[in-house]
Design goal:
Distance between the termini: 54 Å
Largest sheet: none
Radius of gyration: 22 Å
Order of helices and strands: HHH
Structural class: mainly alpha
Length: about 100
């Protein structure tokens, strides 16, 4: 039987034993009230990637449901035609197939 001194020690503190000050970030003053689905510091690409994912979903939805042209989508979102084509192509390509990883 192991004694209390022989048990492995916890490296991370339990939440009730740690000091946490909710300082937020430059986007939102409080982490606990942040509307982003994931923390910008944990998401690859940061806050811009989080914002783009919502924008891209809207572009795809409008293209499919309203059959909007690439030119109309580019004007509506203030993007280039090339960016609209990239978003639409990425929605049609299965993950990892035909994509460059460089």
């Amino acid at each position: 039987m192991e004694t209390l001194l022989e048990l492995p020690r916890r490296i991370d503190a339990l939440p009730e034993h740690s000091d946490y000050s909710d300082k937020g970030c430059d986007l939102f003053p409080s982490c606990l009230a942040c509307p982003l689905p994931r923390c910008r510091y944990e998401e690859p690409g940061g806050a811009a990637a989080l914002m783009r994912s919502g924008r891209d979903a809207s572009i795809i939805r409008m293209s499919e449901e309203r059959a909007m042209s690439v030119d109309a989508l580019a004007r509506m979102f203030g993007l280039s035609r090339r960016t609209i084509f990239r978003v639409l192509r990425a929605s049609r390509v299965p993950d990892g197939v035909g994509r460059r990883t460089a």
